[in-house]
Design a protein that fits this description.
With about 475 residues, the protein is of the alpha+beta class. The chain is built from 17 helices and 17 strands. Strands 5-6-17-7-8-10-11 form a seven-stranded mixed beta sheet. Pfam families: TLD (PF07534).
Amino acid sequence: MGTTHSHHHHGHHESEWKGPFSDEEYDCLVKSYSDVVAAKDGASPQERLQRFFSLPIAVEVPSEWQQGLAMLGASFVELCKHTQEQQGEPSASAALTLNDFVRGIAQCTRASSQAILRALFRLFASDKNGVYLSEDEVHTMLYACLVMANDRLAENEPKQLVQMTRKLADAALPVPLPVGSAATTRQLSMDDLMRWTGNQVPLLYSTFSSWVTKRCFGRLARLSYNPPELSHPSDILSLSQFTALSLTGTPLQQRVDRLYTNAQDGLSFNRLCHHILGYGGPTLVVVRSTDGDVFGLYGDTEWRETSKFYGSNGCFLFRVEPHLSVYRVSASSANENYMYLNTKGVALPRGLGMGGDTTAFRLFLNEDFDENCYTSAKCLSFEPGRLTTKNNFAVDALEVWGCGGDDAIGRQRAYRKDTADMIDKMRKVDKAAFIGNEFDRNFLLSKTFGHGTDAARIADDEH
């Protein structure tokens, strides 16, 4: 977190708290403070902070969420004051001082992931004891996080953005209340949020901290979150869905390259294997079934043809439609059967699988991609939970995305060149062996250049 110390600057009466910031960063904060909080433009500090924290609001956003987004400036002032009190130095002034501001920014950007998550929770909680978020507040917070992750979403796909916000909120909030129960809305406690994000979307806090960092430090910003950059638009996932998936782990926070799509490459197991084999990095496999389920897997190891399982504990399974769920490697590690790809074996199932074992995979795409593909709700490799509505399904659409950058693509090029060279070499070996064999040579030449009775006999044989 850096060093924490106080010192005096000439011209300032207050003992300054630089906290974890460098001199250059601290100067940026002083400038932000004077521009935002201390400017003499007739607006209140809360109003100016509201402009500082303004987020794009998609046309589809319900008015209840808009109210929460319009309160961020005032909520940040509350957060700064609260942070000072927590650190045993209640602010001497009712106004927002420079120290208040710096401590508030430190709490949002340079604290532990749990402390940053607590700050995020407080920003959206109308209950200033910070005990619960209402259902609307959960929606508002998650909408803000998606837009902080990628501000193009509000303009480019407002409908999908709001849909994804609702799905995330449904995943975070406790199960819906039974009809007729005394309570009217669902609530989310700080502990609930910690538990849910810790398992499902551990990088949610980093969208917030990176966004505040960018607002304050511009070119100096060292960001802990970067949105995924897709080499091509996806035919299955919206950018909002991809952004939500990127909160599950760092591998999707970079350029992701489309290695295979059935829309362009054809729905064929051979074509799929051609496009993924040799790629030297992790991959995201996304499936849409003919029933409309959207789900898939993340393989942390390059794909290879073998009858054995491989991969390690970075692998996970996920579901996007109708709910967002992530199933990570099971804590017991009772079984390390993660990735499976078999193209040749007859004794074992031919296809692509993950989890379970060769008699009952957790997810299996057979070589025909037909209704004999299946998922199961539990296995010894991953946490339990459903991936599809029905156990059996047929593939409607399939994509594979590479998460290994230029290095992984370079390794695939080298693999393909080696494979082509080897095939070429084998052809030459066969040709040389053929030329050295008098019987084969005579037989072929008579067939190719045959005349008279031989030619007529061969023609008869072939028809």
